[in-house]
Amino acid sequence: MSTNQRTDWARRQPPTGGSNFELYAWFFMRVSGLFLVLLATGHMFIMHVFNDTLNLDYEFVAARWDTPYWRTFDWLLLALSLLHGTNGLRIVLHDNISNQNLRKISLSVLYFVSVMFFILGTYVLIAFVSEV
Amino acid sequence: MDITLNILRYNPDSDKRGHWEEYKLEAEPDERILDLLHKVKWFDDGSLSFRRSCAHGVCGSDAMVINGENMLACQVLVKEVSNPIKIEPIRGLPVIKDLVVDMEPFFDSYKKVLPYLINDDEPGERERLQSPEDREKFEDTTKCILCAACTTSCPVFWTADSYIGPAAIVNAHRFIYDSRDTADKQRLEILKDVNGAFRCRTAFNCTSACPRGIQVTKAIEDVKRKTLTIN
Hints:
Number of domains of chain A: 1
CATH topology of chain A: 3 helical TM bundles of succinate and fumarate reductases
Low-confidence stretches of chain A: 1-15
Low-confidence stretches of chain B: none
Largest sheet of chain B: 5 strands, mixed
Strand content of chain A: under 5%
Number of helices of chain B: 8
CATH superfamily of the largest domain in chain B: Alpha-helical ferredoxin
Helix content of chain B: 25-40%
Structural class of chain A: mainly alpha
Number of domains of chain B: 2
Largest interface: A-B, 26 and 33 residues
Strand order of the largest sheet of chain B: 2-1-5-3-4
CATH superfamily of chain A: Fumarate reductase/succinate dehydrogenase, transmembrane subunit
Shape of chain A: elongated
Largest sheet of chain A: none
Number of strands of chain A: 0
Radius of gyration of chain B: 20 Å
CATH topology of the largest domain in chain B: Fumarate Reductase Iron-sulfur Protein, Chain B, domain 2
Shape of chain B: elongated
Oligomer: heterodimer
CATH architecture of chain A: Up-down Bundle
CATH class of chain A: Mainly Alpha
Number of helices of chain A: 5
Radius of gyration of chain A: 21 Å
Number of strands of chain B: 7
Mean pLDDT of chain B: 94
Structural class of chain B: alpha+beta
CATH architecture of the largest domain in chain B: Orthogonal Bundle
Helix content of chain A: over 70%
């Protein structure tokens, strides 16, 4: 075995313990997954089964968002799917990018994009005023 | 019957990387893969290196990749695998020579989970008693022989620089679920790390690789759940 190889493997340190983040992230994936099954199927049935997609226009959305109930429904769908998806991608990036710098950069891009989408979506949901 | 054995050879003194070598030999269908390796080493090419100790599936020395799957060479018969037979060292650990890998990173992870009974209470005049039901909880994980077949079949272990690996979690499970042990918290503290039990993606390679039939992925999930209730 070359010396190089040994140095590489010497870096292989077993975990040292620490925060509960991974535990909570793991639990969140399960709980949010369950909620998303309900929210996403509900969303799909409303948009594609009970209503014809051809009829989904500004008035339809404005009427829905007249009630805080549907705004909450949509916000939950947005928040949970974004967080669930971001955490899933975080795991994928952790598993597949071994270069530390590249991993940091890709994770930063992921977090930035997710936060921007979240702020934008939440802003629209809160600030929307029907003009019908 | 005629057997063709393809072995991934690596000599650290002369090779930059491994290369395949072919051996033709006669074997009975009931012979083990380990017997074939012995034939090569004893009668054909004495430079072939591999580990084996008990040769009966108990010591766990001869885990290797046989036709793409992690197995113990002493447990698999010639008739159970297709011919030609491809043999490689287990993956994810540095190769020292031929089929011999450096097991140190594997045992470092194993030691990390405190794989021994911890209980400072006075045991009393007799041994610490345990009900058959409590014993059953960790029966499966007592069977581990530390052959590293599970850990080196894990895709996360191949790529992640420091995942603790299924074998270490199985051995933590063996003591976490032992009613006589008192160090659950210490072990779970180690396993809740980013490279601990939560690094497992439930690929189930470990479960199919285990030569003792341990439900490895289930044990890892048990440990994850236990971490949730203890925190």
